[in-house]
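Today's session is about reading a structure prediction critically. Students often jump straight to the picture, but the first step is always the sequence itself: look for stretches that repeat, for charged clusters, for runs of hydrophobic residues. Only then move on to the predicted structure, which in these notes is written as discrete structure tokens rather than atom positions. Here is the chain we will use throughout the hour.
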Amino acid sequence: MNSAPPKPQRNRKQFLLLLAIFILPVVTAYAVYFLFPGLRPTGTTNYGQLLPQARPLPALELRDAAGKPAEAGLFKGKWSMVYVGPADCAEICQTEIHLSRQVRTALALNARRLQRIYIAPDAPALAAATALFAAEHPDLLLLTDAGTPGSRAADFFQPAPADALYLVDPRGYWFMFYPPQADQAADFKGIGKDLKKLLNQSQVD
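Below is the predicted structure for this chain, in token form.
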């Protein structure tokens, strides 16, 4: 004799139980996030300061020492560590450039995926920076900002502090920066940790 089919009431209870198993965690998370904001996680694992929203770089008018425009896709396809230099690259400026070199070197085989870019405010400042860095920093791309006031690199990288190192992703979006710190060892360790994590997660070779 064939057994009797399951009762509809039993099937309904099983269905409601399964539904509760899948829905309850979502409802709980929603309630905690919106009804109890004090319970939201506030800690971050990054060392650098994240922007509230990543910002695409505008078409900056950058030129090299010969006056030639920088390549159109300069900020595409690679991670970029950008430093907007002052008219006179003094101690803090030089320290940040040396720090960026140490961080890039520590990436070992991944160093090729990160480019360092120095943007001088004018041609004389570029000439001075070239004399200062060219020999010891052959990988440092030295450029001058030939844009009009209001559309220059210094105008875009705001409100980050002066002498910060700006991190731009391979799509050309500025999303993080590193203000200058007195503890260079902490900077080296923290920035290096951020970059290794980003490069490991990135799909861009």
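Discussion point for the tutorial: The longest helix spans residues 8-35.
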